Amino acid sequence: MILVLDFGGQYNQLIARRVRENHVYCEVHTLTDGEISADKNVKSGLGTAINFDAIKNLNPEGIILTGGPQSVYNPTSSLPPAELFNLNIPVLGICYGAQAMTHVLGGEVKKSDVDEYGKTSLEILSASRLFKDVEKNSVVWMSHADRIFTLPKDFTVTARSENCPVAAAENSAKNLYAVQFHPEVLHTVEGKKIFSNFVDICGCKRDWKMDTFVADTVAELKNKIGNGKVLCALSGGVDSSVAAVMLSKAVGKNLTCVFVDHGLLRKNESAEVEAAFANYDLNFIRIDAAERFLAKLQGVTDPERKRKIIGEEFIRVFEEVAKKIGAVDFLVQGTIYPDVIESGLGKSAVIKSHHNVGGLPDFVDFKEIIEPLRLLFKDEVREAGRQVGLPENIVSRQPFPGPGLGIRIIGEVTADKIKIVQDADAIYREEIFKAGIASKLAQYFAALTNMRSVGVMGDGRTYDYAIVLRAVLTSDFMTAEAAQIDWAILNKIANRIVNEVKGVNRVLYDCTSKPPATIELE
Ligand code: XMP
């Protein structure tokens, strides 16, 4: 097992992911005020609390200190205890983690003359087990304003970059490794090899697999829930479907799945979801709440407010259903890791509040919320779905956000705009499917810009909306690039949309990557 200590970097869960790719069990915990606080457990997603003594009891094979936004010389910054480096456990410090290791062990970290953000070239200076089979010169991803100036005793420099003389350093006798760059992001070309080498340095057996995740989580859920009643928010998407089936394995008839049609679903989706789950024993209830959501959204244009309203209304609907069902102890949600990190996990900055995380109101009328997939990436959720026997048409479904079309309509949401975006999106999906490229795209959808512009149709002037088409390639949804769809296909889609969807006279294609854009428009 490898323990990841989270100092709030944006890419922290990618670190856990790189470890898991090596089939090593991994837990991520947060260090607050010198204490390792309650956090999350990658294996179950149910959470455990640990402190420094608990780390010793846990006795991990390796420890990774993550990056983060703090500066080690700021007196309020979190720092690992110096004893952590005397446990005879290999430690890998990344970015802030490398600086924290240096600082705690007596080296010096200061503001760098030149900040380094983005890709840079790394040159390995001396042999290191961490860099076994890594090219001497390779591209790495940097993101730092401080840097290591003086190394602690018994450390040597093992790599440098143009603006960072200590891009990597180590005390090989004690297996302490510091890297200023981010090996966890895909832009660091040799990153995967570096993690694999660290796993070898730690002597891990590499025997952790998804099927143990499913079996262990079902067992833990059974244990935790006992005879309690469980309500599951089923959206028909991969995440909540996998969560629902796992819960049904754990508690059987004590599970009720509620599907809220908030009126912000894709065209015909509501009927499709109902049909898909007809064959499962999930106590499936469909609630038609479209008017209620629309009324709450009236006049609201701010994206974060929209997300919060939709999230809160969801909870209210569930509470009402729960009251009708009788005592309900647990609410299950299919929240997955990218939803968590972007809503501000640990000390990371909030980018968007995803409705099933940040949008939760303070008062929730349930004993507890259970999010069994909280620490899995999308492709891992799909893998879990296959293992619990879900059919491929559900498992490989493209993701659809909880707030639905509410965040694909820029500005105020109205019934007319919903219809426009539903119709345009249905055409887009149909044509992508016909072109045979659906499986190559991670996510693709139409959204309604709030922009109207002049056009000419027949002999008349129009002043109508512009639809924007988005299609992205990604596996983890943390970063993504715009797909290069064949022009002929786009042309056909644009023609069909302006001809068939009333109120649209212009179609745009979004070519931005994430970052700097996000996948959704709001
Ligand atoms: P962004 O727009 O943040 O999207 O780059 C990343 C992935 O998350 C989905 N998404 C959501 N999923 N609730 C969800 O369940 C939400 O509030 C939400 N917002 C975005 C998005 O569709 C993409 O797959």
Q: Overview of this structure, please?
A:
By secondary structure, this protein is of the alpha/beta class. It has three domains: 2-202, 3-Layer(aba) Sandwich (Rossmann fold); 210-395, HUPs (Rossmann fold), CATH 3.40.50.620; 414-510, GMP Synthetase, Chain A, domain 3, CATH 3.30.300. Helix content is 31%, strand content 26%. It has 14 helices and 19 strands. The protein has helices spanning 12-21, 52-58, 96-104, 191-202, 210-225, 238-251, 269-277, 290-297, 303-325, 337-342, 378-387, 392-395, 415-434, 487-500; strands spanning 2-6, 26-32, 35-40, 62-65, 91-94, 108-124, 137-150, 156-161, 164-171, 176-179, 230-233, 255-261, 284-288, 330-332, 368-370, 443-457, 460-473, 481-482, 504-509. A ten-stranded mixed sheet has the order 3-2-1-4-5-10-9-8-6-7, with helices on both faces. A five-stranded parallel sheet has the order 13-12-11-14-15, with helices on both faces. Strand 17 and strand 18 form a beta hairpin. Helix 5 packs across helix 6, helix 5 (210-225) packs across helix 11 and helix 6 (238-251) packs across helix 11 (378-387). The longest helix is centred in the middle third of the chain and has 23 residues, at 303-325. The chain is globular, with a radius of gyration of 25 Å. The model is unreliable at 33-49, 344-349 and 355-363 (pLDDT under 50). The structure holds xanthosine-5'-monophosphate (XMP).
